[in-house]
Write a structure and sequence with these properties.
Layout lengths: L1 H15 L2 H6 L4 E3 L10 E13 L7 E13 L4 H16 L11 E10 L3 E3 L2 E13 L1
Length: 137
């Protein structure tokens, strides 16, 4: 399920990222970690865990509620503002997105459940969007 969800998120980004997002998130979007030579700003999304809920009347009577974080990194002088701008553009692409899954999984909802404040750690600005991906299986 994690592989299918990650593929779905990456495909959705590739198909729906606006020119505004592509122009500011120049390093790109990566699953789990970014390559060593990537230049900021960039975003890494990661699987953060999940729970399973019984779903009376669902397609298969179970739903997986998978948590994903989207961490945006910037080293610019105004990196906090840059990371926040990217996080907001990501929200336009992903908030309540209709994601497509394969292998018998069905996307129900992709809901943003939080956004962190911008943090400055080791000369890098970082901001996080947290999403819950509701998957019927």
């Amino acid at each position: 399920m994690i592989k299918q969800a990650a593929t779905s998120i990456g495909n959705h980004y590739d198909l729906n990222a606006s020119s505004a997002l592509s122009n500011i998130n120049t390093g790109g979007l990566f699953f789990q970690d970014a390559p060593q030579n990537v230049v900021e700003p960039y975003t890494v999304f990661s699987y953060a865990g999940s729970t399973t809920d019984d779903n009376m009347g669902g397609i298969r009577d179970k739903q997986e509620l998978a948590q994903f974080t989207f961490n945006t990194f910037s080293k610019a002088d105004d990196g906090g503002a840059e990371a926040l701008n990217i996080a907001e553009q990501l929200q336009l692409v992903f908030d309540e997105a209709a994601l497509t899954l394969t292998d018998g999984f069905t996307s129900i909802r992709f809901q943003r459940t939080g956004t962190s404040a911008a943090f400055f750690i080791d000369d890098v600005w970082q901001i996080t969007n947290l999403y819950t991906f509701w998957i019927d299986w």
